[in-house]
Design goal:
4-stranded antiparallel sheet, 15 helices, 421 residues, single chain, alpha/beta
């Protein structure tokens, strides 16, 4: 991984200032590699922490008391996770010491009705439950994993669902879906002869996976309806040539010019979807609390964007209220484009989006790929010694995913199988 999660005490000024580079200028070169959060105490004074959040968005907040006491935060503590000591870096799963995540993602807005979504949830749970059968070699990790069988079945595209179907239907789908998962977990656990999962649901922050599915990430709203998404790739990655041929803008990555490039992708998330500037900090917090109450018995990963000038002074007041409704939250001040070089998201207007897409379409085939992409990918990857399975990892990992290449590889593998038989 490229970052680590660091936890500190809420009253430690030294910890709160780890990313204050005026106080600690020597940390500027490597401070970005850590996501810093505090174990907040219910009823604490949030002033000092919020002063730092207004400047750089850290620390994040995790309420271990809530994580231990509640599944879904519906007012009924059950203490099912009394042994948890923290969570994963994005905080969508509560975890005991030595415990690992097991996450799977669903997209309810892509389903035509609840019956289709019900089947989606059953398949997602079947997959995730199967993953808990995998042998874990570290004894301490194996013991806790096999005992808890913890799963985080997540939902993404919430901003789209709210726009197209409304919050009342979302409430119904979440409540019914949660029941479906518990009923099916009973069946699967008996069939596999393993314990029922201590927890079943989460809300991931998502990102690349939701982009691949054409969904907004987790509960988050997009930068705007139309935006540029910038993704970093290795300079010698086999897809760079085809992407350049297709017309995508590619430039050296700032600070890593010799090894990395940045590729720009124009995105349209759909009509009527509000951008981040149109959704207040308070509404975002309310949506996170809604999902923590009606869906996530693990946790909701929520990064709340806010206007530093108008909403920054309200951070302390917001935490005073939502500390009783959330298990964790982080904040990010909204910055104008250009605050940092090659920011991952840049809002654009419809005219700019159409210009970008028109430029791409002139270089693409009917499948939306450059004409020589399939053969070129196969040739390059074969020269580098990739097998079909290695190709699947190469083209569906992190920010680097190309289904057309994978389909081509599978087709060739099938042809070879037929020939050999």
């Amino acid at each position: 991984v490229s970052t680590q999660s660091t936890w500190g005490k809420p009253d430690s000024i030294e910890f709160l200032d780890l990313k204050n580079y005026e106080v600690n200028p020597h940390r500027a070169e490597y401070g970005w590699t850590s996501n810093n959060s505090i174990f907040a105490k219910l009823g604490m004074d949030y002033t000092e922490a919020c002063n730092r959040v207004q400047k750089n968005g850290e620390p994040g907040f995790a309420w271990l008391e809530n994580m231990k006491a509640y599944s879904r935060m519906n007012g009924v503590p059950d203490h099912r996770d009394a042994k948890v000591t923290g969570g994963n870096p994005c905080l969508e799963q509560s975890l005991e010491s030595m415990e690992l995540c097991c996450l799977v993602e669903t997209f309810p807005n892509h389903c035509t009705d609840f019956e289709e979504y019900k089947r989606t949830l059953e398949l997602a749970l079947l997959y995730a439950k199967t993953v808990t059968l995998v042998t874990v070699h570290w004894p301490e990790t194996r013991d806790v994993m096999y005992r808890n069988r913890r799963i985080g079945c997540s939902v993404s595209g919430i901003a789209q669902f709210l726009t197209t179907r409304g919050i009342h239907r979302l409430h119904r789908w979440l409540e019914l879906g949660y029941q479906v998962l518990h009923q099916y977990d009973n069946v699967l656990s008996q069939w596999l002869k393993i314990p029922k999962s201590v927890k079943l649901t989460s809300v991931k922050p998502s990102g690349t996976i939701s982009l691949l599915a054409g969904a907004t990430p987790g509960i988050h709203f997009p930068e705007s309806r139309f935006y540029i998404r910038r993704i970093r790739m290795a300079k010698d990655f086999p897809m760079i040539g085809p992407l350049r041929e297709a017309g995508y803008k590619i430039e050296p990555a700032f600070g890593s010019e010799d090894s990395t490039v940045v590729v720009e992708f124009p995105v349209d998330v759909g009509e009527g979807i509000r951008g981040q500037k149109e959704v207040s900090m308070w509404e975002q917090l309310s949506i996170a609390a809604f999902m923590q109450k009606h869906w996530a018995d693990n946790q909701v990963s929520a990064t709340i964007t806010f206007d530093p000038a108008t909403e920054g002074p309200q951070l302390k007041n917001a935490l005073d209220y939502f500390q009783y409704q959330l298990k964790g939250v982080s904040f990010l001040p909204r910055l104008e484009y250009g605050a940092f070089p090659q920011m991952p998201y840049e809002a654009i207007d419809e005219e700019k989006y159409k210009q970008e897409m028109q430029r791409l379409r002139t270089n693409l085939d009917d499948e939306g790929m450059p004409a020589r992409t399939h053969s070129e990918i196969l040739r390059v990857t074969e020269q580098q010694g990739f097998t079909t399975h290695k190709m699947e990892d190469a083209f569906c990992d992190g920010d680097k995913c190309d289904l057309s290449a994978m389909r081509a590889a599978r087709a060739k593998d099938k042809e070879n199988t037929v020939e050999s038989s």
